[in-house]
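Lab meeting prep.
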Amino acid sequence: MTLHLDTLFAYLRRAPFGGRLTKLQVEGVERLIGAWDRHGSKDDRQLAYLLATIFHETGGRMQPVRETFATSDAQAIRRLDAAMAAGRLRQVSKPYWRDGWFGRGDVQTTHERNYRKVGEAIGVDLVADPGKLLNPDVSAKAAIVGMLQGVFVPGHDLDRYFNPDREDPEGARRIINGTDKASLIAGYYRNFLDSIQAARKEAMRSAQVVLPDSNPVSPAVVAAAKPDGADLKKDTTAIGGALAGLGGIGGAAAILKPVLEGVQSPWALAAFVVVLIAAGLVLTGRVQLKARGGV
């Protein structure tokens, strides 16, 4: 994917990251975009929604995490037990985490059945070792393939919500978790999509070009060095017209052609032409030079 990364992160720093980006956040976004290039689609909206989902599920870290952001499996289980005892998990009827099937990864895969389905979809045995979902590459592939193929919730995938006839970032929450925080994540989606589109436009605008000497020069430099109208490095007829005022010298273009072809720098060529044109204007009387202080 061709994106201008400076532009991408300038936009993302403002929103949704709130004015600051850490090294891990930058690395996480780059990791996910790279994985999307390998496993994803060509739809920038789908990529934006993937990133928005991961931003939400990882608490903005953009790195695979354990549920409750625990630093170990044992800590995750303790924290979930405490939350259930405090009545903060009323929607949970069975403590799924005690057997190790708590949320892991970029999109918080939960429950043994989901570990099994996702593992089969990406060719990794996540039942034998659910901790593999904390591997950044495995986690990115699991998130992308899972959301593209509707592995987490059958019938709900990225193509359903983002296609030529539909763009539904709120409804797309059903790919992962019903309608929980659907509007919030839709807001993140718009931040990511704006950033991606701006970065893509800037990449196209600032794409390098190669001059005949094979030295890459930015389009801005090329534009500044190129005169209005004819390309003077290829068309000496334009110069012939300018030289006609130099005392009516016949065949001036033919005489100077070898010299012009020997000028390799666009800047030097432009300066050379300006001098010649100025000389022609003076000699033909169209411009008169006056001494400083004259009247």
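Slide two material, second protein:
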Amino acid sequence: MLVIKNKVNTLFNVTPKNITQEILTSDVPIILKGYGDKWPIVKAAQQSHQHAVDYLKLMEKGVTVNACYLEAKEAGRIFYNEDMTGFNFETKPKILSEILSEILQQASNSSPKTIYIGSTSINNVLPELAQQTQVSPLLSNSIYNIWLGNQSKVAAHFDFLHNLACCVVGKRRFTLFPPEQVKNLYCGPLDRAPGGQAISMVDFDAPDFKKFPKFNQALEAALVAELDPGDAILLPSMWWHHVEGLEDLNVLLNHWWRNSPAYMGNPTDALHHAILSIRDLPKAQRQAWKHIFEHYVFDHNEENFKHISEQAKSILASPLDEMHARTLRAHIQNKLRR
């Protein structure tokens, strides 16, 4: 296990009812200790894993979910296969109650297989649980998911969306890195990854510092957070996070949301387009485009465009409204078809 010297700051007495916009827009991670302590699922988990499973089974609606199965030799690490032509797990559709029983059975196995369900809509699978764990109206439009399994390791990755995640059964460990550490995390393919986002290729249980020497620099900036049942963590957009389920049964509930209009699209699309059209240009041209991007995007300042009349600004007007966003998207689509 990596030894991380920096800990995530902790707030106490923050509940689903009194969470504030200031917390939800924090640009650094925050642990919310005891956030979900009053939820029935957390109280069941505090009795035993069997109580938690029994409680979930009472509410499940017979909906089929996709579960990942890893052989014991993988030690819970959800990753690629050896030649990176695919992944090291098999996905099977099953009823949630059946999966929960299998997880409890694996607890008595000396070499347990890993069973893992990721990013599954609570409203579809456990609507009653969604109602019992309602949070602030500030998150009423968020995506609400459940993640569960036995001991597992999800490689470091980032999400564009903000994330409020609450551990309700078992224990979770988050190892976190600020966005600028991307250069030290040795990320894998952009277009094929276990969860859809590029992941760090470093094995956090046994990091190879000869192969990944800059990972030492990432560790200097790393933060660690360990969550007990009822504890939550606020993960700002774009922070890298490696997530471990530490017990024989672990259940996490999370909200994802963005603080910008959905019509603005996903920045990953812009990254892919830049790889297509800019990355392999001669260096001088790349540097020129870097200045262009800084002027129009990364260092955007309305003062730079005051010389243009308001009615003529079009897509340079800030913020971009939905009408101009739709026009711009249609223009891009037409260009890509050529």
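Talking points for slide two:
The chain has a mean pLDDT of 95.
The CA atoms of residues 279 and 286 lie 7 Å apart.
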